[in-house]
Amino acid sequence: MNNNNNNNTVDTCNNSQRTEKVYSQRAKRWKLVIAGLIASLIVTIIVSLNIGYTFISYSDILTFFGTRIPYVNNLIDTTAFTREQLANQAIILDIRLPRILAALIIGAALSASGTLFQGVFRNPMADPYVLGVSAGASVGVGIAILWGTGINFFGFPIVPIAAFLTALATIFFVYSISKVGTRVPEMSLLLTGIAVSIFLAAIFQAMQFITTDHKLSQLVNWQIGSITNVGWANWWAVLPFIVAGIALSYFYARDLNMISLGEDTAQHLGVNTSRTKKILLVLGSIMTAAAVSISGLIGFVGLMIPHITRLIVGPDHRLLIPTSALLGAIYLIICDNIARSIGGATEVPVGIITALAGGPFLVFLLRRSRQKYRM
User: Distance between CA 32 and CA 35 in Å, rounded?
Assistant: First the structure.
């Protein structure tokens, strides 16, 4: 008996050591992946600052940044700047930088939201755009633009609040309509989301017929999806919601891993699936609404990036959530660079670029899904 107990103890210790070794190796790999993506993001931002109708050298760009860094700015003589350099400084710090950072947080928000929706619904085609969440948020934005101008709630502007409420209502409506018993069939979810998106798009278009010319241009820009006019004020207004949404989502990564194994399994492992799913849907809606409130409808980012990231790093949401956010940020910055470049002095809305890339990707997923069911 003593020998058996000793053997069991040794086996347990060996298994524990193996588990710790595997986890240590995996954690080390995770750190390398995150570090590589952060480095890529920084390089993308620096390169993006040099892209535009006006050419500005990297040396000037670094000098302009130095004027905003404490202690370093004392070493730079701004009085020696030429008129051209002063104009270029305004272009970099007041136009290009806030726009690039807007693309960063919007791409991160939409990708993180897509990751949450795909994990909650256990469906690779779940996405804020496809499920109608983006369209719902846009209706909220439209209502705020038409009838809520100047209204604030405890210091927060009405636009992101209205976008969040309508986005949240949309996702719960789509979820409840698609549900069959305790399951949410893939095709039912997709078709319901598309139908709701079309209906909400019709409401948004109807708003354009009852508004003035000034507000009409705002609605059109939101419908297309553009970050051309995003400034520092817009960026700071939505940054807390997006950062908090991504951070809180990470704390539920383990529960999301359990849900991906099946709701029954997750409940047996101690996860309150109903509460967790509602919290994650709220967080995803908050991030989507915050992004849509300053950019409009930018589609398919939340569909493509989580799916691609999952193929690269695997299904573990502890790694999937942060890497999707980082990769989404890089992707949308690159798409915005293309939008700023291909039209010359006339810029193409970034929503067109993401739609051109995302449409074929959705068709690919649909064909792959159909082949799976045939097998």
Answer: 5
